[in-house]
Amino acid sequence: MEALAKFLGGQVVTQVEDFSGRWAKVVAGVMVPGAGGIRGFGVTLTGGQVAVVGDDYMQPMKIESFKKLFENFYTSVAVQRALNAMGYQTNANVRPNKNIVIRGVKETGYYV
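User: That's the sequence. What structure does it adopt?
Assistant: Structure tokens below.
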């Protein structure tokens, strides 16, 4: 969630707000303060089920876009951690279409 918040220019939060000003607790969420920012989208965990929640009314980002972005960032972090565990050095770049490209490089073992 930290990488996603950084990408969106926001902060990680534990509550998100709807258009009416009501707050809901989340496991982790993102809020982008300021005019034209995001009141908040977050992730809840109920009975083993993960759900993306938030109110996208009058927001610059719709909840489906946030959900796709969250899935991309979550998958990216998981893949990078797996590659790191296998000895790869990784970096990730977010494309304009919000897809994430991961590059992994592993030393060949040639030392002088």
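The chain has a mean pLDDT of 90.
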